[in-house]
């Protein structure tokens, strides 16, 4: 069995951050999102892994490398023609897949547990397709299985009126029949090859399709609020460890990880779960629950809650509490009194959201 990770697309719902950063590299608890997919695949024992990337994308290759960090042999596949649907990702990889079985993993999915049991069930039950399911509050955002008794008879893509409260998560296991399916289906109204249509094709052709409900939590991190929730869920599992230097008056409560060469100065309160990376400088601030601060950030005179601050950013003397926010790399957020004449000075790109 081989594994294929999708890491292309445009990330339109996460703009403006995704104008300059592939969403699969966005840090969750200070670790690029795609690393979680690689870790889960490693647990299955699969060694041959391909990552689907956009045409001309070099950023993922620079960050992930050759896969030796995870004991994997990595191949990068550019998606010819652009983002044309998940089934097209598989179709684009058909020569690399060859005659092997396939674990298909969407790189913007994060789950709490191992996927080893999914692969084992697929093999033990001699299935042609295994779908990982999870109950969700809004199935209209996902592929939704239609059941007849205990059997899946169809998968509908983003239905207006879902026939179940399950979502097909972004983790699939296939026999080589998936190649026939993605070759046979037609583009949808969105002009994409839908993976749900490929699943329905397999069902209608009599393939043996099974499913497994994911235990624990699963997050599809397509929207800002999903990223924050996923970040919070991962932070709840971080080790409690202090590697940096703390002023004697720093107050820490809950689970907190602080990286090397970070200096936490006077008048700082940290309430976990929180992770703070390496080389940071923080003083006169409160870093509150479910916040991650990446490497080489400076925070002074500011309170932050339930937010992700990417590397190299500075947040100085903000009089208002920052909450539920995504702050990209090398950003500068300072008080209106930081420069003269006083006032709110804004340099804003497309699709930016600001509350003053």
Structural commentary:
With 356 residues, the chain is of the alpha/beta class. The chain has 2 domains: 2-222, Alpha-Beta Complex (Spore Coat Polysaccharide Biosynthesis Protein SpsA, Chain A), CATH 3.90.550.10; 238-334, Hexapeptide repeat proteins (UDP N-Acetylglucosamine Acyltransferase, domain 1, 3 Solenoid), CATH 2.160.10. It is 20% helix and 31% strand. It contains 9 helices and 30 strands. The strands form 7 sheets. Strands 5-4-1-6-11-8-12 form a 7-stranded mixed beta sheet, sandwiched between helices. The chain has a 6-stranded parallel beta sheet with strand order 14-17-20-23-26-29. Strands 15-18-21-24-27-30 form a 6-stranded parallel beta sheet, with no helix packed on it. Strand 9 (143-148) and strand 10 (151-157) form a beta hairpin. The longest helix has 12 residues, at 33-44. The protein is elongated, with a radius of gyration of 22 Å. The mean pLDDT is 85.
Question: Any chance you could write out the topology, listing elements then pairs?
Answer:
Elements: E1 2-6, H1 17-20, E2 27-28, E3 31-32, H2 33-44, E4 48-53, H3 59-64, E5 73-78, H4 86-92, H5 94-97, E6 102-106, E7 109-111, H6 116-124, E8 129-135, E9 143-148, E10 151-157, E11 166-174, H7 177-184, H8 195-204, E12 209-213, E13 218-220, H9 224-235, E14 241-242, E15 245-246, E16 251-253, E17 256-258, E18 263-264, E19 269-271, E20 274-276, E21 281-283, E22 286-287, E23 291-293, E24 298-300, E25 303-305, E26 308-309, E27 314-316, E28 322-323, E29 326-327, E30 332-334
Parallel strand pairs: 1-4, 1-6, 4-5, 8-12, 14-17, 15-18, 16-19, 17-20, 18-21, 19-22, 20-23, 21-24, 22-25, 23-26, 24-27, 25-28, 26-29, 27-30
Antiparallel strand pairs: 2-3, 6-11, 7-13, 8-11, 9-10
Helix pairs in contact: 4-7, 7-8
């Amino acid at each position: 069995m081989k594994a294929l990770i999708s890491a292309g697309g445009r990330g339109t719902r996460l703009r403006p951050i995704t104008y300059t950063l592939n969403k699969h590299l966005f840090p969750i608890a200070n670790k690029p999102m795609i690393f979680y997919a690689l870790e889960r695949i490693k647990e299955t024992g699969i060694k041959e892994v391909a990552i689907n990337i956009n045409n001309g994308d070099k950023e993922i290759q620079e960050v992930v490398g050759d896969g030796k960090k995870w004991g994997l042999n990595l191949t990068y596949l550019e998606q010819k023609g652009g983002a044309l649907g998940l089934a097209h990702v598989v179709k684009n990889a058909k020569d690399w897949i060859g005659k092997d079985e396939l674990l298909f993993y969407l790189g913007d999915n994060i789950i709490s547990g191992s996927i080893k049991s999914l692969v084992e069930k697929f093999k033990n039950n001699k299935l042609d397709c295994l779908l990982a399911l999870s109950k969700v509050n809004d199935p209209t955002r996902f592929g939704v299985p239609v059941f007849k008794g205990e059997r899946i008879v169809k998968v509908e893509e983003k239905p207006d009126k879902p026939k179940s409260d399950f979502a097909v998560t972004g983790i699939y296991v296939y026999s080589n029949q998936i190649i026939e399916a993605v070759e046979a289906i037609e583009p949808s109204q969105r002009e994409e090859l839908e993976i749900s249509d490929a699943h329905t094709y397999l069902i209608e052709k009599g393939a043996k399709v099974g499913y497994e409900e994911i235990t624990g939590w699963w997050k599809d991190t397509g929207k800002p609020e999903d990223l924050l929730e996923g970040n919070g869920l991962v932070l709840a599992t971080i080790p409690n460890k202090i590697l940096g230097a703390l002023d004697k008056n720093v107050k820490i409560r809950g689970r907190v990880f602080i990286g090397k060469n970070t200096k936490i100065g006077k008048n700082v309160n940290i309430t976990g779960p929180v992770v703070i990376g390496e080389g940071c400088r923080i003083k006169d601030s409160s870093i509150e629950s479910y916040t991650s601060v990446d490497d080489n950030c400076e925070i002074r005179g500011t309170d932050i809650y339930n937010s992700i601050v990417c590397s190299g950013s500075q947040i100085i003397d903000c009089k208002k509490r920052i909450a539920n926010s995504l702050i990209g790399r090398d950003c500068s957020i300072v008080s209106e009194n930081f420069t003269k004449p006083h006032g709110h000075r804004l340099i804003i790109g497309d699709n930016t959201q600001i509350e003053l």
